[in-house]
Amino acid sequence: MMTASSNQPNEVKSDNSLPVVELVLWKPKEGVSLEEAKTAILDLNDFVENQPGFISRKTGASEDDQLIDVVLWTDLAAAHTAAEKIEHSERCLKAFSTVDETTMHFKHYQLFNEFESKK
Question: Pick from 31, 42, 104, 106: CA 20 to 30 A from residue 87's CA?
Fold first, then answer.
Protein backbone atom coordinates (compact mmCIF):
# COMPACT_ATOMS: atom_id res chain seq x y z
CA MET A 1 0.00 0.00 0.00
CA MET A 2 1.26 3.48 -0.82
CA THR A 3 0.51 6.74 0.94
CA ALA A 4 0.81 10.41 0.14
CA SER A 5 3.01 12.82 2.04
CA SER A 6 2.82 16.60 1.92
CA ASN A 7 6.60 17.04 1.67
CA GLN A 8 6.25 17.31 -2.09
CA PRO A 9 3.01 17.56 -4.04
CA ASN A 10 2.04 14.12 -5.35
CA GLU A 11 5.01 12.46 -3.62
CA VAL A 12 4.17 8.90 -2.68
CA LYS A 13 5.82 7.10 0.25
CA SER A 14 5.59 3.53 1.45
CA ASP A 15 3.64 2.88 4.68
CA ASN A 16 6.74 2.51 6.83
CA SER A 17 8.46 5.67 5.63
CA LEU A 18 6.53 7.82 8.12
CA PRO A 19 7.08 7.74 11.90
CA VAL A 20 5.24 5.64 14.45
CA VAL A 21 3.19 7.51 17.05
CA GLU A 22 3.07 6.24 20.60
CA LEU A 23 -0.04 7.63 22.27
CA VAL A 24 -0.60 7.32 26.01
CA LEU A 25 -3.58 8.73 27.91
CA TRP A 26 -3.92 8.53 31.72
CA LYS A 27 -4.92 10.28 34.92
CA PRO A 28 -2.88 10.60 38.11
CA LYS A 29 -3.54 8.14 40.92
CA GLU A 30 -5.84 9.30 43.69
CA GLY A 31 -3.78 11.37 46.10
CA VAL A 32 -1.32 12.48 43.38
CA SER A 33 -1.78 16.08 42.24
CA LEU A 34 -1.61 17.05 38.59
CA GLU A 35 1.59 18.99 39.28
CA GLU A 36 3.19 15.96 40.96
CA ALA A 37 2.19 13.80 37.99
CA LYS A 38 3.63 16.31 35.52
CA THR A 39 6.93 16.50 37.40
CA ALA A 40 7.18 12.70 37.63
CA ILE A 41 6.41 12.08 33.98
CA LEU A 42 8.98 14.65 32.84
CA ASP A 43 11.61 12.38 34.40
CA LEU A 44 11.08 10.09 31.40
CA ASN A 45 12.58 12.65 29.02
CA ASP A 46 16.18 11.58 29.70
CA PHE A 47 15.26 7.94 29.11
CA VAL A 48 13.39 8.39 25.82
CA GLU A 49 15.92 10.85 24.44
CA ASN A 50 18.61 8.19 24.64
CA GLN A 51 16.61 5.44 22.92
CA PRO A 52 17.42 4.45 19.32
CA GLY A 53 14.68 5.62 16.98
CA PHE A 54 13.40 8.43 19.23
CA ILE A 55 12.25 11.51 17.29
CA SER A 56 10.22 13.70 19.66
CA ARG A 57 7.91 13.78 22.66
CA LYS A 58 5.03 16.09 23.52
CA THR A 59 3.10 15.86 26.79
CA GLY A 60 0.01 17.78 27.86
CA ALA A 61 -2.92 17.92 30.27
CA SER A 62 -6.63 18.46 29.73
CA GLU A 63 -9.01 20.54 31.84
CA ASP A 64 -10.15 17.38 33.66
CA ASP A 65 -6.55 16.40 34.61
CA GLN A 66 -6.14 13.72 31.96
CA LEU A 67 -2.59 13.60 30.63
CA ILE A 68 -1.45 12.76 27.12
CA ASP A 69 1.96 11.66 25.93
CA VAL A 70 2.69 11.68 22.20
CA VAL A 71 6.03 10.16 21.23
CA LEU A 72 7.30 9.83 17.68
CA TRP A 73 9.56 6.90 16.79
CA THR A 74 11.28 6.10 13.52
CA ASP A 75 9.66 2.66 13.42
CA LEU A 76 7.57 0.20 15.40
CA ALA A 77 10.56 -1.95 16.38
CA ALA A 78 12.22 1.05 18.07
CA ALA A 79 8.99 1.89 19.91
CA HIS A 80 8.58 -1.70 21.14
CA THR A 81 12.22 -1.95 22.23
CA ALA A 82 11.96 1.28 24.23
CA ALA A 83 8.70 0.10 25.83
CA GLU A 84 10.43 -3.11 26.95
CA LYS A 85 13.50 -1.28 28.28
CA ILE A 86 11.49 1.31 30.21
CA GLU A 87 10.03 -1.43 32.42
CA HIS A 88 13.53 -2.13 33.79
CA SER A 89 14.39 1.47 34.70
CA GLU A 90 13.91 2.31 38.39
CA ARG A 91 13.60 6.01 37.61
CA CYS A 92 10.88 5.34 35.02
CA LEU A 93 9.03 2.91 37.29
CA LYS A 94 8.99 5.63 39.96
CA ALA A 95 7.34 8.01 37.47
CA PHE A 96 4.81 5.33 36.54
CA SER A 97 3.86 4.97 40.21
CA THR A 98 1.89 8.23 39.86
CA VAL A 99 -0.31 6.76 37.08
CA ASP A 100 -3.80 5.41 37.70
CA GLU A 101 -3.45 2.30 35.55
CA THR A 102 -7.23 1.85 35.33
CA THR A 103 -7.37 5.06 33.26
CA MET A 104 -4.34 4.37 31.07
CA HIS A 105 -4.59 3.75 27.33
CA PHE A 106 -1.36 2.93 25.47
CA LYS A 107 -1.08 2.26 21.75
CA HIS A 108 1.25 2.56 18.76
CA TYR A 109 0.09 3.88 15.39
CA GLN A 110 1.87 3.70 12.04
CA LEU A 111 1.32 7.07 10.37
CA PHE A 112 0.06 6.98 6.81
CA ASN A 113 -0.49 10.69 6.31
CA GLU A 114 1.67 13.70 7.11
CA PHE A 115 0.38 17.18 6.37
CA GLU A 116 1.71 20.49 7.66
CA SER A 117 0.67 24.07 7.11
CA LYS A 118 2.60 25.85 4.40
CA LYS A 119 1.80 29.25 5.95
Answer: 31
